[in-house]
Amino acid sequence: MNHSAASVFRITQNQTAGVTFILLGFSEYPDLQVPLFLVFLTIYTVSVLGNLGMIAIIRLNPKFHTPMYFFLSHLSFVDFFYSSIITPKLLENLLVEDRRISFAGCITQFFFLCTCAVTETFMLAAMAYDRFVAVCNPLLYTVAMSPKLCAFLVAASYSWGLVCSFIFVYFVLTLYFCGTKVINNFVCEHSAIAAVSCSDPHISHIILSSFATFNEISSLVIVFTSYVFIFVTVMRMPSPGGRYKAFSTCASHLTAITIFHGMILFLYCVPTTKSSWLMVKIASIFYTVVIPMLNPLIYSLRNKDVKQAARKLIKTQLRSHKS
User: Fold this and answer.
1) Within 10 A of 198 (CB to CB), how many other CB atoms are there?
2) How far is it, in rounded angstroms, from Cα 71 to Cα 109?
3) Out of 39, 44, 206, 236, which could bridge 87 as a Cys pair, Cβ 3.0 to 4.6 Å?
């Protein structure tokens, strides 16, 4: 362990003993606690069932053992994990008055939040590349999108998510925290944690902003470039039916990308001032709780094959329970 890492480790050990965070969440709206609990419980239930159901459908049906659904199964896993590290604590804090979270618990939540966010960013970019190959080079699709390449793209997304998270956590741990601090959010995200530190978070902000900007720009360049080539290829197709079929295969993915990156870019544009924290919370709700629920719905509602497979799976489960 080098000197700087050892110093961070000692600082972390010293400060965790006396540091407690309180997640403010939506406690300033006491009359909305129960309605919000019911709304978020419903969203979480749909998210869990939708994402696990999507994974089960893809894994159990050989028809879906293709690159597109391989990526989709991993996107569903990330979304399931995403919502499961955020929503249970959110639901708990809507029911109890004690909204404390330990320093270690907050940092752990922050670590997995970053991992999921970065992984999903590049998973969606990999899916854009998959759609580019499918539309622009259909005859070479099975060769170009080989199992080895698909596994590499997925592994790279997870790996880069972990690397970014370790870097973010390292610089958060260089901050000094003292006593009990109120985090003006329902989740331990960077701006809220840095706002309650007892030291200057400037360097931590610069590091996280630099990596976040790189991740956002690089992934959007991949997505934008892929869809420019897709659009040009589709518009050259002589058959209107062929154009419609090509666009329909991309519609679900394009919808998911628009919602996900739209929320992230919105958060970039909202300054973390006292008057804007409510907007930050609402945007955070969308990209940590609502989007993981929407993705399986977007992909299933627009896909006849998935809907048919889902109905078969449900019927099979009902028969097994009856017998």
Assistant:
1) 13
2) 25
3) 44
Token digits for 211?
């990596």
- Say which amino acid occupies 194: A
SS (H, E, C) 216-247: HHHHHHHHHHHHHHHHHHHHCCCCHHHHHHHH
- What pLDDT score does 1 carry? 47
> Which residue has better confidence, 159 or 22?
159
Kindly list the domain boundaries of the chain, sorted by start residue. Answer: 3-322
* Residue whose C-alpha is closest to residue 302's, from 124, 72, 90: 72
Question: Greatest CA span in the chain, whole angstroms?
Answer: 69
User: Rounded to 10 degrees, what is the CA torsion of 215, 279, 174, 201?
Assistant: 100
Fold of 3-322: Rhopdopsin 7-helix transmembrane proteins (1.20.1070)
Phi and psi, residue 21, nearest 5°? -105, 150
The strand ranges marked E within the chain are 20-23, 100-102, 180-183
Per-residue pLDDT, 161: 96
Contact (Cβ atoms closer than 8 angstroms) between residue 98 and residue 23: no
Over residues 129-173, the pLDDT tens digits come to: 999 998 888 888 888 999 999 999 999 999 999 999 999 999 998
